[in-house]
Design goal:
Layout (H helix, E strand, L loop, with lengths): L1 H10 L2 H20 L3 H18 L2 H8 L1 H9 L10 H21 L6 H28 L2 H10 L2 H21 L4
Length: about 180
């Protein structure tokens, strides 16, 4: 039994666990304190990208599911937008998967991070624009549907790009990028 405890403890990466806890705390609690999309959005996107490169894709996907729920319960997203939360989660996963795929595919290139960022932000934006536009038209009054469509359109692309730039500014000095 002692051998099992030693094996488990030697396989735990304490640094990765600590990074995940810090980044996860930011993603979880930030929407409760900052209720401005242009502040919260870039920070949350930066946290997702930092988690991808520092801890790994599984941890990043786990965190991708949290901020939308916290934004909803913290008041950043109005309660009437609850039906779009799963689509926001999926769009965050699209950003992460696209960045990881293109970063690995173009690992020898100079612009691999930014190719993944632009493509991932673009996919996130297109996905959110198309799905939330349809959902909001079905579920919301016309004037509210227009506001939802605006909130889920170009600001999503902009906050993803800003978040990527913030993450790059942190990752590059840490030499977490190859």
């Amino acid at each position: 039994m002692d051998y099992l405890k030693e094996t488990v403890l030697t396989k735990v990466n304490a640094q990765a666990v600590a990074q995940f806890l810090v980044l996860g705390s930011i993603a979880t609690f930030l929407p409760f304190f900052i209720h401005a999309q242009f502040l919260t959005g870039p920070i949350v996107n930066a946290v997702l990208i930092l988690t991808l490169f520092l801890v790994g894709v599984r941890s990043a996907i786990t965190l991708a599911l949290i901020p939308s729920l916290m934004a909803l319960s913290g008041g950043l997203l109005p309660a009437v937008l609850a039906p779009v939360v799963p689509f926001i989660m999926i769009s965050n996963c699209l950003l992460i998967f696209t960045m990881e795929y293109l970063y690995k595919k173009f690992e020898q290139g100079k612009y691999d991070f930014f190719a993944g960022l632009i493509a991932g932000a673009g996919l996130k934006w297109i996905f959110l624009l198309s799905t939330t536009g349809l959902i909001s038209k079905l579920l919301l009054k016309q004037e509210l549907a227009v506001k939802v469509a605006q909130m889920m359109s170009w600001p999503q692309f902009a906050t993803a790009i800003l978040g990527g730039v913030i993450a790059y500014g942190i990752l590059k000095p840490l030499k977490a990028l190859k």
